[in-house]
Structures are given as C-alpha cells and as structure tokens.
C-alpha cells in the first residue's frame, strides 16, 4: 500500500510533535510497522560467528520473512524522516526499535536541557517590548515567533 501522505522530516526542537505524527503515519500506513518500532522484531534470530560477532540468521519461514520485511520498512521510514546530516550517524543502527530510541535521545533532550529552555523562553517573554520605530507588524511577528517557541 502506497501512502499519499508526505513524510514529515524531523526538525530541531520539534521532536514531540514529530513523534506523535510519525506514530500516526506508521499506524495508518501499516500497524505492524509501529509494533516493530515499539516492541522490536521478535522473529530475528541471531548467532555468533567464530570471532564472537553477532550475525543475523536468514529467515526461513514465511512469517519470519514477512517480519524481516516489516522491520526493514520501519527502519527505512524512520531514516527517511530524519535530516540528512544525521543519516551517517543513524544508518548503522541495527533495528527500528533502537533507531527510534536513538532519535528520541538525540532530539528530545534531557530534563535539564528542557528546564533550561523553559527558563530562557520565560525570560524572553518577560523582556518582550515593542519600540516605536519597530512598528506594530514587526512587533506582532516577533511576538508570534516567541509564542510558537513556548
């Protein structure tokens, strides 16, 4: 099934909105994609070679082949939805579940960075002022930009 919905590219500072939209996109496209991202691919079998390196065993059953296809599709969609400058960093991640976690870790930030961002925005809001030469239109645009960051 081909979706006519344009894939949303993740932008800095918009992880929460992006993640909600990606969840909706993936569940609407194929619910199995979202399940693979949330739960991992339980049909992937691995073994270790002589050097102790973990390798995937090729799927042998129709169910395992389908599960592998869904896993690849989910990972591909996630990779297509991140900015180009992060492709090299994220494309080596082995599965969709780990990729989602890495994207969240990179773009969602931690509690401390969110607190700092809130503090900065509050300060900008308190310091907001309009000068006469600036004009009402520019002041309105400046205010809208500040509000959109909150």
Question: How is this structure best described in words?
Answer:
- The chain has helices spanning 15-29, 31-39, 62-80, 87-90, 96-108, 111-126, 136-149, and strands at residues 45-48, 54-57.
- By secondary structure, the protein is mainly α.
- It folds into two domains: 15-108, no CATH class; 111-149, no CATH class.
- A hairpin with a 5-residue loop joins β1 (45-48) and β2 (54-57).
- The longest helix has 19 residues, at 62-80.
- The protein is elongated, with a radius of gyration of 21 Å.
- The mean pLDDT is 83.
- This is Ribonuclease H-like domain-containing protein.
- It comes from Tanacetum cinerariifolium (Dalmatian daisy).
SSE series: HHEEHHHHH
Number of helices in the DSSP assignment: 7
The side-by-side strand order for the widest beta sheet comes to 1-2
Number of domains: 2
> Which structural class do the helices and strands define?
mainly alpha
Helix-residue proportion: 55-70%
Most strands sheet: 2 strands, antiparallel
How many beta-strand segments?
Answer: 2
Protein name: Ribonuclease H-like domain-containing protein
Organism: Tanacetum cinerariifolium
Layout: helices, strands, pairs:
Blueprint: H1 15-29, H2 31-39, E1 45-48, E2 54-57, H3 62-80, H4 87-90, H5 96-108, H6 111-126, H7 136-149
Antiparallel strand pairs: 1-2
Helix pairs in contact: 1-2, 2-3, 2-5, 3-5
């Amino acid at each position: 099934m081909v979706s006519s919905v344009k894939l949303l590219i993740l932008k800095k500072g918009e992880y929460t909105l992006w993640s909600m939209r990606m969840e909706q996109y993936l569940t609407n496209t194929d619910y199995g994609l979202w399940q693979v991202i949330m739960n991992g691919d339980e049909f992937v079998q691995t073994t270790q070679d002589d050097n102790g390196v973990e390798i995937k065993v090729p799927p042998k059953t129709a169910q395992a082949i389908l599960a592998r296809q869904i896993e690849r599709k989910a990972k591909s969609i996630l990779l297509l939805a991140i900015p180009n400058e992060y492709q090299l960093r994220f494309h080596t991640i082995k599965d969709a579940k780990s990729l989602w976690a890495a994207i969240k870790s990179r773009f969602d930030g931690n509690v401390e960075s969110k607190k700092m961002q809130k503090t900065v925005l509050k300060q900008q809001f308190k310091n907001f002022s309009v000068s006469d030469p600036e004009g009402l239109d520019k002041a309105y645009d400046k205010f809208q930009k500040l509000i959109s960051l909150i």
